[in-house]
Write a structure and sequence with these properties.
heterodimer; A: 504 residues; alpha/beta; eight-stranded mixed sheet; 22 helices; globular; B: 395 residues
Chain lengths: 504, 395
């Protein structure tokens, strides 16, 4: 058996200390990207990749994958493929080794996660039938309703079918959800197969063009129940059969996916509970085993928190590259373009005041929890990304600023002891908090002015840059992703001592 | 577009550094009150987004007392007959109250470690042995770190005892793993003559309501008077689900309106239980991801309220799906931070999942597994037996 060259034996106890020292991840996949961060940072300082380097990198990648609940066998094949890419002939001299490894891992991740987004096509003779299957508690009923809502947003007329007659009140739950998304629910107290068959007639009769069949949760090894779901499938002959998988699933995801695929021939997977901090390695495992795309992802408790799954985004996020696309989408929803330009120009001229800061906080809050935003931002050093930013803490800062007069917000230097006391009383903080805030802010201001390449191309307020010659100008390449040319990691490294990074 | 990103980046960094920095400064100040009290002083805000289903909530300011945590608003408590016509109740399953042993049930999923064990036995101990053991443990969701700890210990033992027989090695491994789970009190605490409250918490879909249903029946059979409080006011029809279980087990039942404050429901349950002299209140809560801090605050409030006289919280049980991977650790950590867990209920262990994560949870946080769910019927909820749990992995 020529296998497991990549397998580690746990002789060396070194790794454990690092594990213990690691901060707990803020959102999913963080730890995985942090680990990669660590490896690649080390690599960046070296020239070429030696064989030993490659092996070390691969070993770390493997452990990271395992901690993210990627099935051990999937992790092994994944690592093998990455090795082939890295060690293979195509070592380009143009790229440095770290970039090559990142590229290889990224490509491999995107491929494993699904390559591209699934496109739903509709049956020429409606209804298009969708069958939902999965373990107990994976979220089938809620997901069915979310899916119904999604189909409605696509201009379809879905109908929900409650074929889960097992769990007490499951149909009741579906009916309630159906009312919330304004989609009719069909069910009757007979047996699941009959319900499914009758629902098809009902859909035809009432002119519904999408039929979503919710089934009872079942264990993959329960042969009786698996036979039943197969019968249901036979009765409705679904166009799409989705396996609903909890993002928190561990190693067993592989067995579950295999069993359901064998019984039902899956068309896709729906990943649920992605809003937690599970690293979601199950997604990789399942994709690998059944070779069907992850079609949708459910990212919250609200019925609207549901969308097509984007493997490329997830892969980027795994690698700590940030999920730029999602971030931009969110920003576009929350930001007014002119306002943004205004703020940018003020920032560039060093006219960024506490007033602006307050406004920025308002905008950011519209985009969701700060912690999540930080996770999406590319190039964030992990100290910042992992900082536990409680939105309530931020709200306190907000209260402090709101207790200042406009003049004080423009020029914090005005704040003397008496003003400080007034602000403190007004915001329920202590005078020390106010000093800390002012100090942090002025440090920040200084830092902002020194950000290299902060000039946007269109920045109208931009002053003529006299020192352009050596370092200035654009630092981003044409065509590359236009992430801000702010190397925040560098920035943080250069930051004055007075500036405390949270979490350090 | 770029400008947007730049502003965003800058704003984020500023907010992170200033906000975080200030927060940090504050945190460093010595605490003059014990942590529990600080907990209690935090405002508990019933999250409006869960009620309305739309809109987000603004993070409440720490200092603003949005609601006196000690004031319990008892909302209209509806005790109603649910329309249960469409529910098919498996009566046959109910009658069949055979107590399955661990091994019978786990048997279906057996063979995971067993396969490796066979292979190791046939070959003798070599480097491959360790790799296979590692793979076996990781596939049981024991986790990289815990596996490493277990195998480090085993290696040490193998070296000092100069073990060369694979059978001996496997025996030592089994004993060591059992030792890791031994010496813990796994009984459920029920103080006679008081209104005991057992609170069930966990992420969505792990089987909280079902566990309460089964446990209620078991407790009733042991002669305890039980009341079930439907603290899950969020998920559609969660109360109906619990009510069905209450009827099956002859327990009293209290529910609130959908979207009601769960603390109020539990409070009402405790009041009624105390008035009627019941022994035990089983309090259900809505499944929640531990990353949602507002929901975790809501949960601490439920615990606080339930513990107020005449209520007496004796168990806070984290219900954990056996299929859960490494995220289980995180769940245990965060939940115990907000409600001080007293134990774990490992559900759905009759599937192919091994639930190895409980090894890490016990080891790291000292939270014992108390109950195990081995199937759909009421009798399938049994006390956790660590020896059988480990043996079942090996045989």
């Amino acid at each position: 058996m020529a296998r497991r060259r990549d397998a580690t034996s746990y002789g060396a106890p070194v790794r454990r200390t690092r594990l213990q020292a690691r901060k707990l991840p803020g959102c999913m996949f963080d730890a995985l990207s942090d680990r990669f961060d660590g490896i690649f940072k080390r690599l960046r300082t070296r020239g070429r990749l030696s064989d030993a380097d490659v092996e070390e990198v691969l070993r770390e990648i493997r452990v990271a994958l395992l901690e993210a609940d990627v099935n051990i066998r999937v992790a092994r094949t994944f690592v093998t493929r990455v090795r082939e890419r890295v060690v293979g002939a195509e070592l380009s001299k143009a790229l440095n080794p770290a970039q090559q490894v990142i590229k290889a891992v990224h490509e491999e991740l995107v491929e494993t996660l699904g390559g591209e987004t699934l496109r739903i096509t509709y049956a020429s003779k409606p209804p298009t039938v969708v069958l939902m299957a999965g373990l107990q508690g994976s979220g089938k009923t809620t997901t069915s309703a979310k899916l119904a809502k999604w189909f409605r947003s696509q201009g379809r007329n879905p109908m929900l079918v409650g074929a889960d007659l097992q769990r007490p009140a499951a149909v009741e739950q579906l009916r309630t959800l159906g009312r919330q998304v304004d989609v009719p629910v069909f069910s009757e107290p007979s047996d699941p197969v009959t319900v499914a068959r009758r629902s098809l007639e009902e859909a035809r009769r009432t002119g519904r063009d999408v039929l979503i069949v919710d089934t009872a949760g079942r264990l993959a090894i329960d042969t009786e129940m698996m036979a039943q779901v197969r019968e249901i499938s036979g009765a409705v002959d679904p166009h799409y059969t989705f396996l609903v998988v909890d993002a928190m699933t561990g190693q067993d995801a592989v067995n579950v996916a295999e069993a359901f695929h064998e019984t039902l021939e899956l068309d896709g997977v729906i990943l649920t509970k992605l809003d937690g901090d599970a690293r979601g390695g199950a997604a990789l495992s399942v994709k690998q085993v059944v070779d069907r795309p992850i079609a949708f992802a459910s990212t919250g408790e609200k019925l609207a928190d549901f969308d097509l799954f984007h493997p490329d985004r997830l892969a980027s996020r795994i690698l700590g590259m940030g999920d730029v696309l999602t971030l931009i989408e969110k920003a576009e929803e929350a930001y007014d373009k002119d306002e943004a330009e205004e703020a940018a120009s003020r920032l560039l001229e060093g006219r960024f005041t506490l007033e602006d800061f307050l406004e920025q906080m308002q905008q950011l809050k519209k985009m969701g929890p700060l912690q999540n935003l930080l996770g999406l931002m590319p190039g964030m050093p992990k100290e910042i990304r992992n900082a536990e930013i409680d939105d309530r803490q931020v709200a306190r800062v907000e209260a402090m600023i709101r207790s200042m007069t406009p003049a004080e917000r423009q020029d914090p230097d005005l704040i003397d002891a008496s003003r400080r006391l007034r602000i403190a009383n007004g915001s329920g903080a202590s005078p020390g908090d106010i000093s800390a805030l002012v100090k942090q802010f002025s440090e920040m201001q200084k830092l902002m002015k020194r950000i290299p390449g902060m000039g946007g191309k269109k920045g109208k307020g931009r002053k003529a840059d006299k020192r352009k010659g050596k370092t200035g100008g654009r630092t981003t390449e044409k065509g590359a992703i236009k992430v801000p040319s702010v190397d925040i990691a560098e920035l943080a490294a250069k930051s004055p001592k007075g500036l405390r990074l949270p979490g350090l | 577009m770029e400008i947007l990103l730049i502003v965003l980046a800058a704003a984020l960094v500023v907010v992170a550094l200033v906000g975080g920095g200030v927060a940090l400064t504050r945190r460093r100040r010595p605490l003059s009150v014990p942590p529990r009290q600080i907990d209690g002083a935090r405002p508990s805000v019933p999250p409006p987004d869960r009620v309305t289903g739309v809109g987000t909530i603004d993070a409440p300011d720490d200092r603003v007392e949005l609601e006196d945590p000690d004031v319990v608003v008892v909302e209209e408590i509806v005790v109603e007959e649910a329309d249960l016509d469409e529910l098919v109740i498996d009566d046959a399953a109910l009658e069949e109250l055979v107590k399955p042993t661990f091994r019978d049930r786990l048997g279906r999923a057996r063979g995971l470690l067993a396969g490796y064990v066979r292979s190791i036995r046939s070959r003798g101990i070599d480097e491959e042995t360790w790799e296979e053991l590692e793979e076996a443990l990781i596939r049981a969701d024991v986790g990289v770190e815990e596996t490493q700890g277990i195998l480090d210990d085993l290696r040490r033992e193998a070296t000092t005892q100069a073990i060369s027989d694979p059978d001996v090695l496997m025996g030592v491994l089994r004993d060591q793993m059992k030792a890791r789970l031994s010496g813990v009190d796994r009984s459920l605490r029920l103080d006679e003559g008081r209104t005991n409250v057992w609170l069930f918490v966990g992420v969505n879909g792990v089987g909280k309501t079902t566990t309460i249903g089964k446990l209620g029946r078991l407790q009733a059979e042991q002669g305890h008077t039980v009341l079930m409080a439907a603290g899950d006011t969020f998920r559609a029809a969660a109360a109906e689900q619990l009510e069905t279980w209450a009827e099956r087990s002859g327990a009293d039942f209290v529910r609130g309106a959908e979207g009601a404050d769960p603390s109020a429901v539990v409070f009402d349950g405790v009041q009624r239980a105390a008035a009627r002299g019941y022994d035990l209140v089983l309090a259900d809560t809505a499944g929640r991801l531990h990353t949602k801090s507002n929901l975790m605050d809501e949960l601490s409030k439920v615990r606080r309220v339930a513990d107020r006289d005449p209520g007496h919280v004796t168990e806070v049980l984290l219900v954990l799906d056996a299929v859960t991977g490494q995220n289980g650790l995180q769940q245990a950590k965060v939940f115990t931070e907000s409600v001080e867990l007293t134990g774990v209920v490992l559900t759905k262990l009759d599937g192919s999942a091994k639930g190895g994560i409980v090894l890490a949870i016990e080891n790291r946080f000292g939270i014992p597994v108390k109950l195990v769910g081995l199937g759909e019927t009421i009798g399938d909820l049994v006390a956790f037996d660590p020896d059988e749990f480990i043996d079942a992995l090996f045989e």
